[in-house]
Design goal:
transmembrane; 0% strand; 6 helices; membrane; mainly alpha
Length: 137
């Protein structure tokens, strides 16, 4: 699990850095790839980039869960994500329109990432490995 923390930091920091670069260049990228009609949606773009950080965290945590034999965490986070997603989309799109869709996406991805992190940290194998790593340090 020592490697998990290291990889988690690397992936999340890299995702944040790339998201900042993409956000700064967002107007240009939207113009080139999607056309001028999408240039006004930069705020939605920024919200969705927050979701990319949650997805990065989710993927690293689920990989660690799978590595310790906890294959159920993927299903649990997906089921909770689907339930929270449906509720979030219904509520937030009605209130915020298109931006509500972005907010609901971030809420869904964040929920899935939090559940994966909680399940990983509550795993007996994870706790045992962290305890062994701290004894060697």
């Amino acid at each position: 699990m020592k490697h998990h923390a290291s990889w988690w930091r690397r992936v999340v920091v890299a995702t944040v850095a790339l998201s900042l670069v993409v956000f700064v260049m967002g107007g240009y990228l939207m113009e080139v790839f999607l056309g001028g009609d999408f240039g006004g949606n930069l705020s939605l773009f920024a919200v969705l980039l927050l979701g990319s950080v949650a997805i990065a965290s989710l993927q690293v945590d689920l990989a660690a869960c799978n590595g310790i034999g906890d294959l159920k965490s993927s299903a649990v986070s997906a089921i909770w994500g689907a339930a929270v997603g449906v509720a979030s989309y219904i509520v937030l799109i009605r209130i915020f329109g298109l931006m509500g869709c972005g907010y609901a996406t971030v809420v869904t991805y964040s929920t899935m990432a939090i559940i994966a992190r909680v399940r990983l940290r509550s795993s007996a194998t994870y706790r045992q490995t962290r305890k062994m790593n701290s004894q060697w340090a």
